[in-house]
């Protein structure tokens, strides 16, 4: 076994590296075959003499007529100190790469290589002035002289009329050749990390320049040198000593401008507007800018704006409207006009804030204006005074709607509906309109004319200021979807809207009341017998104890997330409940009876201070939660039937009269009776030890109701921004005392 391993293993002493001489011989042989000599990083200390006369060193099996003229030489990363004059005999060579060697000077015959198009002499030891014979390399297209110690370039370099790319970075150049403008084909100039103090007067003649890198020099101004470079796409002037904002070229080519780490104190508005149609990156960090011109917001293609570490105290509001701006760096500025929390929240938050402070620049493709509440109110009042918008404004949309059955009037700042949006008008919307979307407007109420659209199936009025809905809308015979998210509707307004027995009870399948001002769930909703989806998230609902869920015969999806719920009541009585969300509430207990719901498959309950279900169980998902809840109940437990409740105006008025009794005695009597009937919804499944008699229970619930009302009033007062600090402190103290009292009263019911 050991012998087999020894035979199959390549031992180190068996490995024989080819001598350097053999490697060179193979490379020379390959050069004769292909015309390409490649000997990089071979530790060469001299230029191989065989290269000058390749055909004189043929091996026995090579034929002279099979050799190809040498066209490319790569001897980079060696230690070659010099080149022989014989190099001039390689008249067919087009590319020479000698980067990272030890060359100090070039032989004069080197400049006889008329066919040379690429020459890389970077990172050598060229210190002396380069020969004026450089201009003889007339075919040169790319010249790389980076990383040497050149203090000047030969003037003859301006004779290289075919030169397209010049790399002279990391030298000690103090000036460029005065006639550099003659290099008409030059489109890449890398001259960073030198000691340039000024650009030659002919620089502006480089009309084909596209990529210009002059960072890490000593330029104080560029004068008019850049103004005519209309094809320039990339400009880097970082880490110079600029005190004058450069005159940028006019045209639509310049894409990236880097001016950071200079001494600029102002931005030339005229200059910056020259590139408004092209620039996407503008870097002006670490300067001395005291302000930005308003017209900088005209750079509508801008994606990155870096103005960090300047002296800015404010920012132009127009920057908030730039659609593509997603990298906005303003750190290190004394921005006293903008809160630190806004800046630290990121680019989109800062842009949104800026949009509230002013309008966008005229004629620029921008985001929509961010309007605050005062501005919205002014627009609504102005529109109300002007009356409904003329029908001519919507004539095209109305004609299309009459044919398609759908009309969308979003984002029109409507405070009043258009006059032709009626059931019996010239478009006969009463029989043709099926879907109506009025979202993102300024409507405070839905008028009776909506009730004339008797064929309507979908009504969407999201993100308005709705406070009321006309009862006639509840009589629409075919309405299936009613979406009222993000308005100001209260439970009372929904009750008045639905009334005693709305026609919606037989048709409505989805009701969306998220993000409104509901403090309770209107009991009238239980009349919507066909309702399948009920969305009540993001309100201020505290309890579901009084809602008759057993009457919601078809509801399957209920969302109650982000409220203030302390009790779910008997929500498990909903016979077809399949999905229930009550995340982010104040629930301390979750009814175990939810585990008995036959159709419940999805339950979401994170963000509650409850201890009924452990966090580990919640993390496992709905199936585990429901099984856990069911296992906490006694074996063979079944749901007790809820007490039937009639919903009528007479009952409501009777309940309303109980709130204003003629005497304290009648108050106690009536409240006890009404609370007793309401409490029937919260009857336990099985007997509970220490059960409080109904009369005492009703008194406690009455006290809890009063405390809840007082707490709501205090919370509303605290929402005001006009409170003084002492007043706010007093209200908070009173609120804390009421909450503590409410907790003590609630414990009596447990």
UniProtKB/TrEMBL annotation:
InterPro entries: Leu-rich_rpt, Leu-rich_rpt_typical-subtyp, LRR_dom_sf, LRR_domain-containing, LRR_R13L4/SHOC2-like. Residues 697-724 form a coiled coil. Residues 663-677 have a biased composition (Polar residues). This is Disease resistance R13L4/SHOC-2-like LRR domain-containing protein. Residues 639-678 are annotated as: Disordered. PANTHER family: LEUCINE-RICH REPEAT-CONTAINING PROTEIN (PTHR48051:SF54), PTHR48051. Gene3D superfamilies: Ribonuclease Inhibitor (3.80.10.10). The keyword Coiled coil applies. Keywords: Coiled coil, Leucine-rich repeat, Repeat. Residues 120-237 form the Disease resistance R13L4/SHOC-2-like LRR domain. One of its GO terms (cellular component) is cytoplasm.
């Amino acid at each position: 076994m050991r012998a087999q391993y020894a035979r199959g293993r390549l031992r180190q002493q068996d490995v024989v590296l080819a001598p350097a001489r053999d490697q060179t011989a193979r490379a020379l042989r390959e050069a004769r075959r292909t015309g390409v000599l490649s000997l990089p990083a071979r530790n060469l200390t001299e230029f191989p003499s065989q290269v000058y006369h390749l055909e004189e060193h043929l091996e026995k099996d090579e034929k002279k007529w099979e050799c190809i003229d040498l066209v490319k030489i790569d001897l980079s990363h060696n230690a070659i100190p010099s080149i022989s004059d014989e190099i001039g005999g390689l008249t067919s060579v087009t590319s020479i790469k000698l980067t990272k060697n030890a060359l100090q000077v070039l032989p004069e015959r080197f400049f006889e290589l008329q066919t040379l198009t690429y020459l890389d002499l970077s990172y050598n030891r060229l210190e002396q002035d380069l020969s004026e014979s450089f201009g003889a390399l007339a075919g040169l297209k790319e010249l790389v002289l980076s990383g040497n110690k050149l203090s000047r370039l030969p003037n003859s370099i301006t004779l290289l009329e075919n030169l397209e790319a010049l790399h002279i970075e990391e030298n000690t150049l103090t000036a460029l050749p005065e006639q550099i403008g003659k290099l008409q084909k030059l489109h890449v100039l890398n001259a960073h990390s030198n000691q340039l103090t000024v650009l030659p007067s002919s620089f502006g003649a480089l009309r084909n320049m596209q990529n210009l890198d002059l960072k890490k020099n000593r330029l104080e101004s560029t004068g008019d040198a850049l103004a005519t470079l209309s094809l320039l796409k990339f400009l880097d002037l970082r880490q110079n000593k600029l005190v004058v904002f450069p005159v940028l070229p006019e045209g639509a080519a310049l894409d990236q401008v880097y001016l950071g780490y200079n001494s600029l104190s102002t931005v030339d508005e005229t200059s910056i507007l020259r590139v408004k149609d092209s620039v996407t990156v503008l870097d002006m960090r670490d300067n001395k800018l005291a302000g930005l011109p308003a017209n900088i917001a005209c750079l509508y293609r801008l994606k990155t704006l870096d103005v960090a570490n300047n002296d800015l105290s404010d920012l132009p509001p127009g920057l908030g409207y730039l659609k593509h701006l997603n990298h906005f760096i303003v750190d290190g500025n004394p921005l006293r006009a903008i809160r630190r929390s806004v800046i630290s929240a990121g680019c989109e938050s800062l842009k949104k804030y800026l949009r509230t402070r002013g309008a966008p620049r005229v004629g620029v493709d921008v985001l929509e204006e961010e309007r605050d509440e005062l501005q919205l109110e002014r627009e609504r009042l102005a529109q109300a005074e002007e009356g409904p918008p003329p029908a001519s404004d919507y004539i095209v949309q109305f004609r299309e709607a009459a044919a398609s059955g759908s009309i969308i009037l979003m984002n029109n700042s409507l405070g009043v509906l258009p006059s032709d949006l009626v059931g019996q008008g010239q478009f006969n919307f009463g029989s043709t309109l099926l879907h109506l979307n009025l979202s993102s407007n300024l409507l405070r109420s839905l008028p009776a004319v909506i009730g004339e659209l008797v064929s309507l199936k979908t009504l969407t009025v999201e993100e308005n200021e709705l406070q009321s809905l006309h009862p006639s809308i509840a009589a629409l015979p075919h309405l299936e979807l009613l979406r009222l998210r993000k308005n100001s509707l209260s439970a009372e307004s929904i009750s008045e809207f639905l009334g005693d027995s709305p026609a919606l009870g037989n048709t409505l399948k989805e009701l969306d009341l998220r993000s409104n001002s509901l403090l309770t769930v209107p009991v009238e909703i239980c009349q919507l017998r066909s309702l399948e989806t009920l969305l009540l998230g993001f309100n201020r609902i505290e309890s579901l104890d009084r809602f008759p869920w057993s009457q919601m015969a078809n509801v399957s999806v209920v969302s109650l997330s982000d409220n203030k719920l302390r009790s779910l009541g008997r929500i498990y009585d909903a016979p077809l409940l399949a999905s229930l969300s009550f995340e982010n509430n104040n629930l301390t207990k979750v009814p175990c009876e939810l585990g008995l719901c036959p159709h419940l498959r999805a339950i979401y309950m994170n963000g509650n201070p409850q201890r009924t279900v452990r966090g580990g169980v919640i993390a496992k998902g709905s199936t585990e939660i429901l099984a856990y809840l069911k296992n906490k109940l006694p074996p063979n437990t079944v749901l007790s039937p809820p007490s039937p409740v009639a919903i009528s105006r007479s009952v409501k008025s009777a309940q309303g009269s109980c709130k204003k009794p003629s005497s304290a005695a009648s108050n106690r009597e009536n409240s006890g009776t009404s609370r007793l009937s309401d409490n029937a919804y919260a009857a336990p499944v099985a007997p509970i030890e220490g059960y409080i008699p109904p009369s005492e229970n009703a008194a406690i619930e009455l006290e809890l109701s009063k405390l809840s009302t007082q707490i709501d009033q205090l919370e509303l007062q605290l929402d005001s921004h006009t409170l003084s600090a002492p007043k706010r402190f007093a209200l908070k103290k009173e609120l804390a005392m009421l909450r503590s009292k409410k907790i003590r009263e609630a414990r009596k019911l447990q």
